[in-house]
Amino acid sequence: MKKVLVTGGLGFIGSSVVDVLIRNNYDVAIYDDLSTGSIIDAYPGCIVFTNRVEDANSLDLAMSIFKPEFIIHLAAQISVEKSVNNIVDDALTNIIGTVNIIKLARIHGVKKIVFASSAAVYGKSDILPIPVSYEGQPLSPYGASKKTAENYLKVAKELYGIDYVILRYSNVYGPRQTSNGEGGVVSIFMDRLIRNKQVTIYGDGFQTRDFIYVEDVAKANLKALQYGKSGVFNISSTTSTSILELMGLIQEICMDTLPPVFGHERNGDIKNSVLCNQSSIDSLSWTPEHSLKQGLLKTYHFYLSEKMASVNV
């Protein structure tokens, strides 16, 4: 079996990636700092190393023990707001952590790194949907750190021959998500409406996003491992949805009519974001399988079961 180390493998996206890899007969180890995930979520028999990617010695030990052929690097600081408020911590995790991965991948003979990047690398664009060829300008430290990490991976390919696949995610949502990150608006809205609490929308609600279901993202990571080259791809639905439209869909699913309240627009937020996924369809043979409503329904049932479980404890 091919051996894959998944950093951040106990988190929201990472746990779904691990699910898909194990179902497809990969030998998987997880490296995670337990900041959002829990070790009880790991598969039986799956090796789990617990530390931060900034800790090169711990990462080196994990790779020495497991000897991965591939790395899927998902561990990251994922909040735009936190990156604005603490630019150093953002850079330490997203840039230094990735540099550590590259350095140790070279030492341990790793063949390929699949890297979780973000739509935030593009910043504001007059071209929608945004193609991967668009040279954007990040509007937040988070976007800048992801873009810098991408550049290090491209240099590593030229200098050390390590293949890479960079996956620029749009707004990922689905079961197990916390309120952090750009897709966290779904989990926040759904959690509050299930609990019959009012939702806050930052800005006027007309800002648009491109929502992609987490299981589709996980399958894109599998396709990236199987891809025979290096490359950069958008992982998105290529469907533009306003926050007000999203709110309406979630209200319909939750059967709730509480009106939202509106807050000030947040620093670093992009007004409109939708990514073109055509190159992913053509080159990775990947296509998103879930419509927004289908994904929201699955997410709703997950959060509803979580609520019921907490009531019955």
UniProtKB/TrEMBL annotation:
Top-level taxon of origin: Bacteria
InterPro entries (alphabetical): Epimerase_deHydtase, NAD(P)-bd_dom_sf
Cited SUPFAM superfamilies: NAD(P)-binding Rossmann-fold domains (SSF51735)
NAD-dependent epimerase/dehydratase domain: residues covered: 4-235
Pfam families cross-referenced by the UniProt entry: Epimerase (PF01370)
Family statement drawn from the similarity comment of this UniProt entry: Belongs to the NAD(P)-dependent epimerase/dehydratase family.
Identification of the protein by name: UDP-glucose 4-epimerase
